Amino acid sequence: MTPVGKYLYAIIRSRGEHTFDDAPAVGDPHTTVHTLSWDGLAAVVSDSPLTEYPSNRSYMLAHQRVQERVLREFTLLPVRFGTVAKGTAPEKDIQKLLDKRKGEFEGLLTEMEGQVELGLKALWRDEKLLFDEILAENPRLRKLRDALAAKPAQASHSDRSRLGEMIKEALELKKDGEAASIITPLRRLARSCVENPVILDRMIANVAFLVDKAEEVEFDQAVATLDEERGERITFRYVGPVAPYNFVNIVVNWQEL
Description:
This protein has about 260 residues and is of the alpha+beta class. Helices cover about 40% and strands about 25% of the residues.
């Protein structure tokens, strides 16, 4: 018989056994996602080969979708992608995990109770319009650009490099100011927020907010207002509620159990 491990998705509060039949498991969509309970806590798991899962889009989306399905019924602590109990008795290893870290998990679940994670990315809609805005706001840049336009490219190489650096600096200042004006009103409605790296030149902000469920409608309306006010210049990508990946990330070291 081929050895089977247990793939972990999340930690929840649950005393009884629970299945999520409509949540396709990582690696095998026909495998049942279910809970393994221990002393009031439970791990959400599915049977898994004893393998390392590559961090590709298919597997990571499957992992995320299971968590989102569980989130519809339970407050959860998301477990890091690719966590598999591979020992000879994976169920017992998971019970040991729940027992050893019970205090930590209970505390985090209490913190996350009634909270949702909402994500917002803001991107410049048109970089040419942005460039025009910067020139309109900076007479010094306009003057240098106009002066260079009348010179041969080779003769003005150093000045063109200087103009490029000045434009880059102006872009960063504008981006920082715009990001602050987007994040500040939303931060007031959130319990916490995490500013993630800006990974594209067009991106202004990439932020996760932890929001009370009771405040979610007001938060939605605040994002809608930003879109109404700035939609001609900025594209907003708003997602959630999702598992609180940016505020909790359970990492398991099986050797420490």
